[in-house]
Amino acid sequence: MPTITTFVPTPEELAESAREHARSVFPAGSATHTQSTGATTPLHAAPPQAQALPAQRPPRPPLDDCLISSAELAQLHIPPRPALLDRWLCEGDLGFIFAPRGVGKTWMAMALPGAISRGSALGLWAAGDATTGPAPSASAEPPASTAPDSGGDAEAPDSGGSTPLPVLYVDGEMSLKLTQYRNNGLHLDTSHVTYLHHERMFEVQTHCVNIGEAEDRERLTDVIVRRGYRVLILDNLSSLASGVDENKGTDYEPLSHWLLDLRRRKVTVIVVHHAGRNGMMRGHSKREDACSWILELRDARQESDSGAKFVSHFAKPSRNTGDPLPDLLWHFTTDPATGITDIRCELAVENDYEQFIQHVLEGVTSQKDMAELMNRHKGTVSKWARKALEDGRISGNSHKLLPPRSKDNKPVKSHYHPDEDSGDEDEEDDSF
């Protein structure tokens, strides 16, 4: 059996190590004086013995003060979390909005903060609870009141006594001109929504934010806490998290811990993401574990429709409701003359079979993927596929489901192109 000998440095080796450390900390040209050993030490420096020891992190306090018995828990008063929109979106939620490219993710993501900030309804979703001031935080500072044209955040309470909820919208992809166009069309200039836009960041700092890096996550947390933002919208995960492999759960863990930290600070986070070729949210399923809800947008636009038209469906029902919410049909249209965006919303009358057809139009080709996506038995999906093929609602065969063919025997154009699903921004036709 080999013998393991512990390495013990000699005094000469320790002295040389100290000199190397001094040269790295105090480069040539700095104010120093030479001791008899030949090592250089800066003027007014601490004794060499104190410098040789690396700084140690102080131990964390014991956990005793954090313990709570079941009897104490039973008597503990825990105030209910305020609802920010209807019953499904509450303070401190972490939620995802996903859809194939071009369906309207950014339209929905930009419509939400206006309603949340003003405390107003959106479509058939009722208004949330009364808006309040900054989230409680030990290190939070009250948001400073700023001039209207300075990109300020929370302001003093209005005459009604309520304080609008400040929202930070981080855009990592869309053009600044198009963001401005939609902001004006949705009247967000009258709300308390502030943008951190990638083009603006590049103009000012010559680089963009990347939540895949710890430093940028810390910078975002800093601005959220200091300015008192209550809601954070990240649009979108693919463009904002560079260098993070979507298919590796371990890559997502640092982001997950950061999002949970924001949740503990009572900051609501909404993440916009893309659907994969199978129609489900792209990437590792680990990101869904801590979600309060997942909102899927399904394309409902016909060739004759203008703007964005889609059905909102809770792929993961909200933990705040206890029961599933109905699917809604949304239609966003913008008047080219005035630039004002009109939002129409109604209940979506769509049975499971029609949803199956819609998923085929969006690019889901496998019956296995379809069964997993819709949470239905494979036999049920097979019956739908057989009926849809017989009725001409779809084409292809039982092994590969395809959109229906037109009169000239060409596949009907779908607004979702799987081969082009590269994480680019939504591509609705907006003229401005």
Would you kindly provide a written description of the structure presented here, covering whatever features stand out?
This protein is α/β, with parallel strands linked by helices. The protein has two domains: 83-350, 3-Layer(aba) Sandwich (Rossmann fold), CATH 3.40.50.300; 353-420, Arc Repressor Mutant, subunit A (Orthogonal Bundle), CATH 1.10.10. Helices cover 29% and strands 17% of the residues. It is built from twelve helices and 15 strands. The protein has helices at 11-25, 48-52, 70-75, 105-118, 176-185, 198-205, 214-227, 237-240, 249-264, 352-361, 367-374, 378-391, and strands at residues 32-34, 40-42, 83-85, 89-90, 94-99, 167-171, 193-197, 231-235, 268-274, 293-299, 308-316, 328-334, 341-347, 395-396, 401-402. The strands form four sheets. A nine-stranded mixed sheet has the order 7-6-8-9-5-10-11-12-13. Helix 11 crosses helix 12 (378-391). The protein is globular. Residues 29-48, 133-161 and 411-432 have low confidence and may be disordered. InterPro entries: AAA+_ATPase, P-loop_NTPase. It comes from Prosthecobacter fluviatilis. This is AAA family ATPase. Residues 91-344 form the AAA+ ATPase domain. Residues 42-55, 130-148 have a biased composition (Low complexity).
